[in-house]
DNA sequence: TCAAAACATCGATAATCGTCGATGTCTATT
DNA sequence: AATAGACATCGACGATTATCGATGTTTTGA
């Protein structure tokens, strides 16, 4: 199971067996599709400049809480757009939403960013 | 500069000044647009399930090096697609490409993922 | 010199995403 | 009850993205 013909569907990559290419890696330790999908969803939440700035503002706020109207102006985005980004961050488990009266306050979920960062570590 | 009328462009959010909303945060420590754009670009490289699996395969490879033909089969993707994903990861500074003969070998840039993960830490 | 193989690049297509105006929902105030 | 304001949701539009077939480039082996 270690020699050549890695992609029979293409008929290509039938390595000359002499040189060492196409050693299909350990086999088991590979991130499976479902896990990858879940992880990608969380990174996708961080893949937009405005969402990163939202996180920066929320986490650096004195009260560690921010309402939507605090974000619209410094980002130069309209309210529906800000709400949309906030929803993505909440769905990703990164932000926490708490409705108090008319306002909605957002805060960073404790440990959320750290655990995401930890998934980039060399070896678990 | 701490009271109300956060979004004059909309005419909205003229807070009643009695309750505490719309305190526009510290002011200086906010991630600026250029930095956010750059960070987002790197996270965007991690925001695709197949790219995460590519990283998983490359980093768990025995020789810490992988060629394209090793990736096409386990991911179920055609060669041009794999090449496309690899280019994105290389451009983001996460993977290193080395051409040896006919094959191209990829390896994780040392410290690249760690430094990205560190940008998610509580306080710099 | 020629053929074959690995990989990159191009062009096209379907899907997803960011943005915003319009509208709906809910709450507090009058 | 009615109004006003904060926020969420909807629908639309332009831009970006993932995927793949076709093709180009480069290197090895005959």
From TrEMBL, chains A, B:
Organism: Glutamicibacter nicotianae
Organism domain of life: Bacteria
DNA-binding is among the record's keywords: yes
Database matches in PROSITE patterns: HTH_ARSR_2
Name of the featured protein: Transcriptional regulator, ArsR family protein
Keyword list, A-Z: DNA-binding, Transcription, Transcription regulation
Residues annotated as domain HTH arsR-type: 31-124
PANTHER family per the UniProt record, alphabetical: ARSENICAL RESISTANCE OPERON REPRESSOR (PTHR33154:SF18), TRANSCRIPTIONAL REGULATOR, ARSR FAMILY (PTHR33154)
Pfam family, one: HTH_5
Coiled-coil region: none
């Amino acid at each position: 199971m270690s020699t050549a013909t890695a992609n029979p569907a293409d008929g290509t990559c039938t390595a000359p067996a002499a040189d060492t290419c196409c050693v299909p890696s350990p086999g088991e330790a590979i991130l499976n599709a479902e896990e990858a999908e879940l992880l990608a969803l969380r990174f996708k939440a961080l893949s937009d400049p405005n969402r990163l700035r939202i996180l920066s503002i929320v986490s650096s706020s004195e009260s560690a809480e921010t309402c939507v109207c605090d974000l619209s102006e410094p980002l130069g985005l309209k309210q529906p757009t800000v709400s949309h980004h906030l929803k993505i961050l909440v769905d990703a488990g990164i932000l926490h939403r708490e409705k108090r009266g008319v306002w909605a306050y957002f805060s960073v979920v404790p440990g959320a960013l750290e655990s995401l960062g930890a998934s980039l570590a060399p070896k678990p």
